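ok new one. same drill as before - structure tokens go in, u give me an amino acid for every spot. 605 of them this time. try not to just spam alanines like last time pls lmao
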């Protein structure tokens, strides 16, 4: 029986190599020398220069009479030519270096020509030349690329071929087929940079030319359907600074917001004024800003229906504030002391009736005046929160109860006071943090000033129940979903307390951090700055006849707040200039002043 040895392909049958001849060896040596010469020619240049100088000097020394000048003249000419070449293309320092090298070479040529190139002068020439070459070598320490070796190296394997259609990521296939195809929700769009995270995946979305990323927001329901997901699992957000055709897509395969995320301890960063308040659907924390470094205190509005979790949001804000060495919060509980009971006795001022609320607000307005000289002393700008000048956030829970007026209650004085705080307080380190049931101007006492200033700050929108009520949220970029569409329960039946949106750069569903018992947290006793401390604290104890609900008393309060009656006069003049009929009622409606103020102002005219 015979065994067959497998046949090798023809190319693999090796021929015996022929013996190298001496001319081959010479050729190889020359090629190697040329290769090295090409690679190291820059570094060898100074040595060639020193050698040339040596040769010129030696030749001149060997000759006698005027003939001795010929090599020196030729050497100087070559040196001058070299210097001229270097000078033309070099920087200032290179020119200086080339000049020193040329002068050195010429001097040595003359010196050697005069005294002869004996052992001492030649050694001196080489030693000085090498010393002079050191900066040049340092500068050209990198050899020239070894092109010859690179050409001789085997070619790298070709890059992997693109993935054949049909074998790409399943998500891209679904996208291309059901979203990006012609006639579908986002024709011509592409999905890229897909990355997974603990609860799903993210991708970069690029829409067809002429499209805006808002179109992707509209296509959210189609995307949910294509990826077979329940509502509230797809988010489209703008990418700051990128083209309007690009957006970030977040797809949740599970919902991390279903789990409560507990507050982890104080996180206020004094350098940014921020602390984490909510956790977004992709697991990222969303910070709340108490102040903007360099730009003053930030106002805020927290809104949501009863049991949506807004008091718990205030608990986190108050705890972060109370544990900081540069924040001194004041509390007004519009719920009669039942909304924020854990803060009674734990803040410098705690007001639980409308009359006490007014006292606190008036006190805050006086603090603004007390702090005015400090702002002037620092030459304008805003007071930066510090242990010496603490930020004073005035937190008002159930603020709508104190701001809205009806037939029986006139709260316009409270609105005026709050307006002044939001309009002027930021630079004095004083801000207003309001909690209402609905993010609407109506709940802010129909004050456009309050609405505008609060909108410029932070809005936390928790669940609401009526569509028309979210009019402070439905502006700017469209929301991924209306706050009224937020579910009351998660699929497992657990309530969605704390679920909502923070109107910051990221519009993504989020849930507030939960702090069960704020009373357990140790607070820092922050003293007021000297200017503010001079203002006596209001006594919040007396009960009798506290309610200034009558028109007369409201007007008196307003009058006390308007130090300059010219303010009312200016408003009235502006309203008349704008075409308002000059009767007291029309002017009252147009200016927001009380009837008494309007009458007084008209009497002054
Ligand atoms: N972020 C959260 N995570 C989990 N549970 C929360 C969260 N926020 C609030 N809750 C729970 O929801 C319930 C209601 O919260 P909270 O009192 O803050 O609501 P509210 O909107 O202020 O209600 P009300 O207007 O009636 O005062 C509380 O039992 C609280 O424990």
């Amino acid at each position: 029986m015979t065994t067959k040895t497998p046949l090798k392909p023809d190319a693999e049958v090796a021929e015996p190599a022929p013996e190298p001849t001496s001319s081959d060896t010479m050729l190889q040596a020359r090629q190697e020398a040329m290769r090295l010469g090409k690679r190291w020619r820059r570094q060898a240049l100074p040595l060639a220069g020193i050698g040339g100088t040596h040769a010129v000097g030696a030749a001149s020394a060997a000759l006698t009479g005027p003939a001795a000048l010929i090599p020196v003249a030729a050497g100087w000419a070559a040196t001058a030519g070299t210097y001229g070449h270097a000078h033309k293309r070099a920087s200032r320092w290179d020119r200086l270096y080339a000049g020193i090298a040329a002068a050195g070479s010429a001097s040595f040529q003359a010196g050697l020509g005069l005294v002869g190139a004996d052992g001492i002068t030649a050694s001196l020439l080489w030693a000085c030349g090498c010393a002079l070459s050191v900066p040049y070598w340092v500068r050209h320490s990198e050899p020239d690329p070894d092109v010859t070796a690179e050409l001789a190296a085997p070619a790298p394997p070709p890059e992997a071929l693109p993935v054949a259609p049909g074998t790409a990521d399943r998500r891209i296939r679904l996208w291309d087929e059901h979203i990006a195809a012609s006639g579908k929700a986002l024709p011509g769009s592409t999905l890229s940079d897909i990355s997974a995270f603990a609860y799903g995946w993210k991708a970069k979305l690029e829409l067809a030319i002429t499209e805006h990323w808002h179109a992707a927001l509209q296509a959210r329901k189609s995307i949910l359907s294509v990826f077979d997901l329940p509502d509230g699992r797809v988010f489209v957000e703008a990418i700051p600074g990128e083209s309007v055709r690009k957006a970030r897509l977040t797809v949740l395969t599970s919902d991390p917001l279903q789990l409560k995320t507990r507050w982890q301890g104080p996180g206020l960063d004094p350098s940014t004024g921020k602390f984490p308040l909510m956790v977004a659907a992709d697991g990222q924390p969303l910070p709340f800003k108490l102040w903007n470094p360099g730009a003053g205190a930030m106002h805020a509005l927290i809104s949501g229906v009863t049991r949506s979790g807004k008091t718990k949001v205030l608990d986190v804000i108050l705890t972060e504030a109370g544990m900081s060495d540069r924040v001194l919060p004041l509390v007004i509980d519009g719920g009669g002391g039942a909304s924020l009971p854990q803060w009674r006795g734990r803040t410098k001022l705690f007001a639980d009736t409308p009359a006490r609320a007014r006292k606190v607000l008036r006190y805050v307005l006086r603090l603004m005046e007390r702090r005015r000289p400090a702002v002037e002393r620092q030459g304008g700008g805003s007071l930066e929160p510090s242990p010496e000048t603490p930020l004073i956030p005035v937190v008002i829970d159930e603020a709508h109860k104190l701001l809205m007026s009806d037939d029986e209650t006139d709260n316009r004085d409270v609105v005026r006071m709050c307006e002044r705080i939001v309009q002027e307080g930021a630079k004095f380190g004083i801000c207003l943090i309001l909690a209402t049931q609905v993010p609407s101007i109506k709940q802010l006492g129909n004050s456009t000033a309050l609405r505008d200033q609060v909108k410029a700050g932070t809005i936390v929108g928790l669940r609401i129940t009526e569509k028309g009520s979210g009019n402070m949220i439905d502006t700017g970029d469209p929301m991924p979903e209306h706050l009224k569409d937020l579910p009351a329960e998660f699929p497992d039946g657990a309530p969605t307390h704390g679920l909502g949106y923070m109107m910051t750069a990221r519009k993504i569903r989020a849930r507030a951090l939960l702090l069960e018992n704020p009373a357990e947290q140790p607070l820092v006793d922050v003293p007021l700055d000297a200017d503010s401390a001079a203002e006596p604290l209001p006594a919040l104890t007396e009960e009798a006849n506290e309610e200034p609900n009558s028109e007369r008393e409201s007007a008196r309060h307003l009058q006390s707040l308007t130090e300059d009656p010219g303010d009312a006069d200016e408003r009235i003049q502006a309203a008349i200039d704008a075409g308002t009929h000059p009767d007291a009622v029309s002017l009252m409606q147009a200016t927001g002043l009380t009837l008494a103020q309007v009458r007084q102002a008209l009497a002054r005219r």
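Residues 260, 304, 306-312, 339, 497-498, 511-512, 514 surround adenosine-5'-triphosphate (CB under 6 Å). and btw The longest helix spans residues 22-62.
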